[in-house]
Amino acid sequence: MKAAVLYHPGAAENFVIEERPIPQPGEGQVLVKIKAFGLNRSELMTRKGLSPSVQFPRVLGIECVGEIEEDPSGEYKKGQQVAALMGEMGRAYDGGYEEYAVLPESIIYPFKSTLPWQQLGAFPEMFQTVYGSLHLSLKIKEGETLLIRGGTSSIGMLAAQLAKNMHVTVIATTRKEESRQLLTDNGATHVLIDNGHLEEQLRAIYPAGVDKVLELVGTVTLADSLRCANEGGSVCMTGMLSETWSMPNFVPMDVIPSTVNLTTYSSDQISLSTHTFQNFLTSVETGRVNLNVSRVFQLEDIVEAHKFMESNKAGGKIVVLTSHS
């Protein structure tokens, strides 16, 4: 099988496409024939050496979709469609950037779908993150206002659609004027051009602030996002598009306004039910939700795929297909 192996952190050119033996699953594991996988910003950070716990060489990839090739336990039949994500996938053990992967049963989500693999490859981590952020952390409700900071990211694009379907008013941000129409077409009622200081722009539209904020840019804009929330409002930090893990000299009582709630969401801490995943795929199949796939690459083109992710020009999910697709 082919695998994209990273022997040393650094530039995208550090990926090596090599032939490897197909691994064999042990107890509590399954062998997945990978059809497709989505790219994630956390993988970009790991590639750059910003994930201290990751040891090299490593096959990156925190998610994938494909079919069961072998399950020693007999729980899954060969050919069963499955998604896999997180659980230290692509970090503590080899992940999705390969044609076959041995993965723990605990991170496997069976599903049935007629969607093409290039669409299915976009959904696992993206949906898990969006659903968890909106429903488990922010607990959005019909009639509320939601600011999505980092609106052109794949997470931001899907969050806007799911929120709009719940009759939530969406305010989305972008750093580029040319992306305004993209966000409007995706369901945003208001689009703000983000220069790092949104509070004044936001309160010109909503003087009291908004009910909920989904922070996808990260720690560099978190303090400003907290000031955009109304009394009793909530801010969920989910993304780190800025690639910065921490806030220097963080003083909670100075940064967090009184009565405003600050929470986070990370999909490696909470798992969703297979029923929730299946319902989401049904909503895509029926046209209620559009999976924003920006570009599709082949596994052999992983270097170009990572460069495209790093360029911040995607405006949707980047999906990579294997030779099995």
Protein traits:
single chain, 325 residues, alpha/beta, Quinone Oxidoreductase, Chain A, domain 1, Rossmann fold, 7-stranded mixed sheet, 26% strand, globular, NADPH binding, NADP, oxidoreductase activity, acting on NAD(P)H, GroES-like_sf
Short description:
This protein has 10 helices and 15 strands.
Record the SSE blueprint.
Elements: E1 2-6, E2 15-19, E3 29-38, H1 41-47, E4 63-70, E5 81-85, E6 100-104, E7 108-110, H2 117-120, H3 124-137, E8 145-149, H4 154-165, E9 169-174, H5 180-185, E10 190-193, H6 199-205, E11 210-215, H7 219-226, E12 229-237, H8 252-255, E13 261-264, H9 274-285, E14 293-298, H10 302-310, E15 317-321
Parallel strand pairs: 8-9, 8-11, 9-10, 11-12, 12-13, 14-15
Antiparallel strand pairs: 1-2, 3-4, 3-6, 3-15, 4-5, 5-7
Helix pairs in contact: 3-4
